[in-house]
Amino acid sequence: MVHLVTVVLALAVAPGDPPRGAVKKPDPADMVIPAGFEAVFKAAADPGPGGFPGGLVPEAIRVGPDAARIVFKAPDGGTAEVVLAHPGVPRKLPQVPTGRFAVWAGPGATGPLAKAVAERLKAAEGGFEWRRRLRLAATPIHPLNRATLAAGQGAQQDAACAALAPLVTRALDGKVAEALAEVPKPAKGEPRCLRLLRLKLAAAAGDAAAVDAAAKAALAGAPKDPDALFLWGTFYYDRRKLDRAVEIWDRLAAFDPGYPTFIGQYGTAWLVSGRLDAARVARLARRAAADPSDIVATYLAGLGLYYQKDYKAVIPHLKLVAGALPDEPRAAMYLAMAHFFAGDRDTAHRMMDALEPYAYQEPDINYCRSLIYRSSDLPRAIREMERFLEVFEGERRLRFGQQKVRKARSDLELMRKGEIPDVHVPPDPPEDPGD
250, 323, 331, 408: which has the fewest C-beta neighbours closer than 10 Å? Predict the structure, then answer.
């Protein structure tokens, strides 16, 4: 009885704590190939200087609603086909996961060919900052999913949304007011992509009242629309209004914490807003121990323990998160650094090197690699810090403090003189949590 009571108490969500949230099973709607991924597939089919095994030459890329196929021509005139699709799509062939996609060797293809394509695809996914940029760019213009197709509405909806593509292009070119003026007025039965487009344009215009109105309209008939909730919270996150962002994102965390790029930013919002105090982190750790499927509690507990410098306690939490969300780079980055500070440098090096496809998306990876390599490979540590500053400062990436940037510049200057700066644990939040 005592054990049961303890488990129930551990599972209870205390007032003000984040909701319980488990990674959901793949939804057929999420297995659709969004518009905008053609550039990634072209990169995956690029022979490069080394070419493909067996002298195969890519001949065509065919993108369907739930899979893409790269067709290769062999020297003897034959063909080989490599299939790229969501890893949850059932296939009776061995798959090579890359992140968003998995790669299968189709008719005439071999395992080495599929692996070669997978390596290029993985690099392309990271290089194009695919998870956030492409998914959000595609959201207003690609509503196809199995439900609408089954209802016979897919083609009609897709045509209506494809017609909005010029407005998206106009907005991306900076002509937001022009695009807003041309958006059709709200109408009954309008496609979801139109409601999301209004939300995106209102956010691009920086109009908080319009963003709130558009988000509420988009969620009125679909309160669990993950794209609408993510976009809405992102508007406030990007403006450092973290209490509002957390309030909105708590709703998304409750049912889809595995939404692309979400958990890392959600954790940062909780951290920087000062919510991960010692008492709450202890409660979250108990929740995570009682229910390992609660990925929200597990990630936030791991993050809080990291900034408490309890690195050995961090590892089991973030190892579970990294396993459940293999394409979430911040979880893996913090896990690698926990290994480093716990004394396991080989594991830290290996994990950090594996994060290369995500380094442009998350330049903190370059910063952390500069920390862990400066005592063993100073030239590399210099290059990593140069890359961090080039992207983070050059592109004015979102940050919640300047201390890390000042330290990066100071460390780089010392390393260029041949000195090895001390490796400090990132500053305690909320002053400058490393974001």
Answer: 323
